[in-house]
């Protein structure tokens, strides 16, 4: 149970505090309600490129990292299809430094074309390092536009193509900042060895005079119901074939989300789960198998992936993955198996609560979904799922016309 | 309105709030340490065996023995073991390194009793079924083959071979055929010889339940106590001199992985702390000279880092990065320039203050919570040290000067003996 207090500033900034006196540290998280889904289809990768520029200095703080390091702090950030999240931790006595730094870059980021150019180069290298110069690295660049026809989840946070990153202009940077980086579009959480009233005072002091910007009201095109199976085959020089299967599923705030998440856990979370136990150990047709949900705020995907051994026919391997998925539709799961995956949720939730940084991130993320208190209801929400829910939701997800398949490998002949 | 032009006051940390370990020795000789702390009803049990790859006579034996502990005992099959671990949501990590094998289990207190019993059972009585072993090795072989397509993986493994020589287990580079040569008897013998109470220690951390000590004694007290005097590690020759370069051509690569470094020493060496600090200035954090120059000014890379790694019988220093193939020569030159600067260019007062404050904050962070404290304590036990080692680090951090950093770099980071691997595409 993570107790927290909430205070909303007059400019709309939501501030949450959780006190944990067992640590000498404080953790500060700022979530901006903007992600890759908000990008223009011809300027993809921009939210992430922008995240890099947030570390390049602001009006009164030319060197963000330097000043934080000076206070003994450490920070990082990540961009997803849904959000951009900045997080730092530092010795609790230096908490005010975090407010100084974060408020200054929200108020007045420094823009410069030299810095933009350098970060365009850095992100280009990131694109190469993580996506192009890795075996299987571009699989998701192919998979997303296969699975999604219209929703912006059809591109990855890194962007559709390096040229999009190269083409970004300083004006794009300024517009993006003024549209999305302001108090009413952000959530600030502070956890650790801090006093609630002191945190709210600091929030008023440093963020209170930052003017709010426009509310981010999204009009994203919803993904239409998929009508038939989609297939793609990519020929690549990799040592082993890999199969990716995706199925559309509900959004994170849907009542069936927890059920779908447990379904993916039954398939491939833990050595005793179905895909490793059956396809890797018993039948020995795969060397690696995986299943998970993307867990997006808009309707996401349930993913099943695997690398069949060289002597296994890829088409047969795909069929075996499908049969394992369909088994959850055809046959009821036992209470024991259901309890097993629920127990794992409880353990990982409890583990996340033992870390101040994880608590700060989670509170912000659930607040974005409507109420930080949802964080404390997670275990209960998973406990409520029944065996018949598993079968019903599996039936909705595991349909051939809801499936997109990518065959990635040397053969490249699957139609 | 606040004065935004001035930073708020910043204070250095006063010290580290160590959790005091309470020690005990079980009847079979296993030393056990208890670290109490944390907010959640959760514990971590770490068992460390001095049974890393250094002790094996054949490649992969330590790794396979460790990872296959959960693949069956005389009483329980792989599936039964894993089903129980998963049912009680115990997270088991089986990690074989160069010197040690780490077996760690995270578990909710309410599931401690049955999972601890299971943990003891797989440590005492693994049978390494032939069939399970073959499946495991075949799958690992596939992963190994895929890794040969990664420039950073190639640079890392060839670098190890350059630094320690192909005969030494610290430097041995795995080949695909190694995965076909492991026999079940190798694992049984290795387990029997090295996975003993007298060759191990245990750390229990977290919110400890009342009966913790008794539970540990009941279950881990049964581990076999073979005296380790009879088990001598194999002897190996370590390469110690010369500087060598390797270029691995990968015509398709978009980036080149660069790794530069040399054999040095471990954390028991008198110069370790000051070297660690000098290394941080060079490439040990985001504000380091390498990161600022090669990423933040030049945009050649997504990241660059340098580090010193402690092994029980040695230690080594390395710089690693992946850069655009077209700038790999330019990046190499900048790396050598920064090494020279470290020897010759004193850190500015700004650099010194940022470095010291960052490192002390980062040090504090590395002790946050009982599980991190257990990790830091483990590091001490492996090298036969105690917490005064960490106090000495903080003391060195307080007193170190730009001159001492330069002198340290001059002593240990001259180009003589520097090894270099570049994997990727040559500049066109």
Account of the 3D structure:
The complex is a heterodimer of chains A (415) and B (428). Chain A is an alpha+beta fold and 415 residues long. Chain A folds into two domains: 5-207, Metalloenzyme, LuxS/M16 peptidase-like (Cytochrome Bc1 Complex, Chain A, domain 1, 2-Layer Sandwich), CATH 3.30.830; 230-409, Cytochrome Bc1 Complex, Chain A, domain 1, CATH 3.30.830.10. Chain A is built from 15 helices and eleven strands. Chain A has helices spanning 46-53, 64-70, 95-107, 113-132, 139-147, 162-166, 170-180, 196-207, 257-268, 274-282, 314-330, 335-352, 356-368, 378-383, 387-397, and strands spanning 5-8, 14-19, 25-32, 74-79, 84-91, 186-192, 230-235, 242-248, 286-293, 301-308, 403-409. In chain A, a hairpin with a 7-residue loop joins strand 9 and strand 10. In chain A, helix 3 (95-107) packs parallel to helix 8 (196-207), helix 9 (257-268) crosses helix 15 (387-397) and helix 11 crosses helix 15 (387-397). Chain A is globular. Chain A starts with a strand and ends in a 6-residue tail after the last strand. Chain B has 428 residues and is an alpha+beta fold. Chain B is 41% helix and 19% strand. Chain B has helices at residues 61-67, 78-87, 112-124, 130-147, 151-164, 184-194, 212-220, 272-284, 289-297, 328-344, 349-365, 369-382, 388-399, 402-412, and strands at residues 22-25, 31-36, 42-49, 91-96, 101-108, 200-206, 245-249, 255-263, 301-311, 314-324, 419-424. In chain B, the strands form two sheets. Chain B has a six-stranded mixed β-sheet with strand order 1-2-6-3-5-4, sandwiched between helices. Chain B has a five-stranded mixed β-sheet with strand order 7-11-8-10-9, with helices on both faces. Classes of the chains: A alpha+beta (415), B alpha+beta (428). At the A-B interface, helix 2, strand 5, helix 3, helix 4 and helix 10 of A face helix 2, strand 5, helix 4, helix 9 and strand 10 of B.
């Amino acid at each position: 149970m993570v107790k927290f207090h909430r205070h909303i500033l007059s400019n709309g900034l939501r501030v949450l505090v959780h006190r944990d006196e067992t640590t000498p540290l404080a953790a500060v998280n700022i979530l901006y309600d903007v992600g890759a889904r908000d990008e223009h289809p011809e300027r993809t990768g921009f939210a992430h490129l922008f995240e890099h520029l947030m570390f390049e200095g602001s009006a009164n703080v030319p060197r963000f990292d330097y000043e934080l390091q000076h206070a003994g702090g450490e920070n990082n950030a990540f961009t997803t299809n849904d959000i951009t999240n900045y997080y730092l931790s530092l010795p609790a006595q230096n908490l005010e430094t975090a407010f100084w730094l974060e408020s200054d870059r929200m108020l007045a980021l420094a823009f410069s074309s030299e810095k933009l150019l350098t970060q365009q180069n850095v992100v280009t290298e990131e694109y190469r390092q993580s996506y192009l110069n890795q075996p299987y690295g571009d699989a998701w660049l192919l998979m997303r536009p296969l699975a999604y026809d219209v929703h912006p989840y059809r591109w990855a946070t890194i962007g559709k193509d390096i040229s999009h990153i190269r083409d970004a202009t300083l004006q794009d940077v300024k517009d993006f900042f003024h549209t999305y980086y302001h108090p009413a579009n952000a959530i600030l959480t502070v956890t650790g060895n801090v006093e609630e009233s002191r945190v709210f005072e600091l929030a008023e002091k440093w963020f209170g005079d930052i003017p709010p910007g426009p509310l981010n009201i999204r009009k994203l095109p919803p993904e239409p119901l998929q009508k038939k199976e989609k297939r793609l085959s990519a020929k690549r020089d990799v040592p082993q074939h890999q199969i990716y299967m995706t199925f559309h599923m509900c959004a994170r705030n849907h009542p069936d989300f927890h059920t779908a998440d447990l379904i993916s856990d039954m398939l491939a979370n833990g050595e005793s789960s179905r895909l490793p136990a059956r396809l890797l150990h018993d039948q020995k047709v795969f060397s690696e198998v995986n299943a998970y949900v993307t867990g997006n705020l808009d309707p996401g995907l349930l993913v099943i992936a695997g690398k069949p051994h060289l002597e296994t026919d890829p088409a047969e391997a795909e069929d075996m993955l499908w049969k394992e998925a369909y088994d959850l539709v055809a046959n009821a799961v036992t209470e024991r198996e259901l309890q097993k995956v629920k127990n794992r949720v409880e353990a990982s939730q409890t583990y996340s609560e033992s870390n101040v940084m994880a608590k700060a991130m989670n509170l912000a993320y659930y607040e974005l979904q409507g109420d930080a208190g949802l964080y404390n209801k997670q275990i209960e929400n998973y406990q409520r799922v029944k065996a018949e829910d598993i079968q019903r939701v599996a039936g909705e997800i595991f349909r051939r016309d809801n499936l997109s398949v990518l065959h990635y490998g040397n053969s490249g002949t699957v139609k | 309105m606040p004065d935004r032009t001035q930073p708020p006051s910043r204070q250095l940390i006063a010290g580290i709030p160590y959790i005091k370990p309470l020690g005990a020795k079980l009847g079979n000789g296993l030393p056990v340490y208890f670290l109490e702390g944390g907010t959640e009803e959760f514990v971590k049990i770490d068992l460390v065996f001095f049974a890393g790859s250094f002790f094996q006579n054949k490649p992969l034996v330590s790794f396979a023995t460790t990872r296959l502990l959960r693949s069956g005992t005389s009483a329980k099959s792989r599936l039964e073991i894993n089903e129980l671990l998963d049912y009680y949501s115990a997270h088991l990590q089986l990690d074989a390194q160069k010197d040690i094998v780490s077996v760690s289990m995270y578990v909710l207190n309410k599931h401690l009793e049955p999972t601890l019993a299971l943990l003891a059972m797989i440590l005492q009585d693994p049978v390494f079924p032939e069939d399970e072993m073959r499946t495991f090795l075949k799958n690992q072989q596939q992963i190994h083959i895929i890794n040969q397509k990664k420039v950073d993986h190639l640079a890392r493994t060839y670098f190890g071979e350059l630094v320690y020589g192909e005969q030494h287990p610290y430097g041995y580079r795995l080949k695909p055929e190694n995965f076909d040569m492991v026999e079940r008897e190798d694992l049984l013998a290795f387990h029997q010889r090295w996975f003993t109470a007298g060759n191990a220690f245990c750390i229990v951390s977290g919110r400890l339940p009342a009966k913790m000590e008794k539970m540990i004694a009941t279950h881990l007290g049964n581990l076999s106590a073979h005296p380790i005097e009879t088990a001598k590690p194999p002897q190996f020759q370590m390469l110690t001199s010369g500087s060598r370069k390797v270029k691995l051509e990968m015509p398709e690569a978009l980036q080149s992985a660069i790794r530069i470094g040399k054999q040095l020493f471990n954390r028991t060496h008198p110069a370790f702390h000051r070297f660690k600090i000098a290394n941080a200035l060079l490439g040990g954090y985001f504000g380091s000279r390498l990161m600022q120059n090669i990423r933040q000014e030049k945009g050649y890379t997504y990241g660059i880092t340098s580090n010193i790694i402690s092994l029980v019988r040695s230690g080594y220093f390395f710089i690693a990065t992946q850069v655009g193939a077209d700038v790999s020569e330019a990046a190499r030159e900048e790396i050598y320039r920064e090494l020279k600067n470290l020897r010759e260019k004193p850190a500015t007062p700004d650099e010194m203050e940022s470095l010291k404050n960052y490192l002390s904050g980062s040090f504090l962070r590395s002790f946050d919570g009982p599980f991190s404290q257990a990790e830091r304590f483990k590091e001490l036990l492996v090298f036969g040290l105690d917490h005064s080692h960490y106090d000495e680090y903080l003391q060195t951090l307080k007193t170190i000067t730009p001159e001492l950093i330069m002198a340290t770099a001059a002593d240990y980071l001259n180009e003589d003996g520097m090894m270099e691997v570049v994997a990727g595409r040559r500049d066109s």
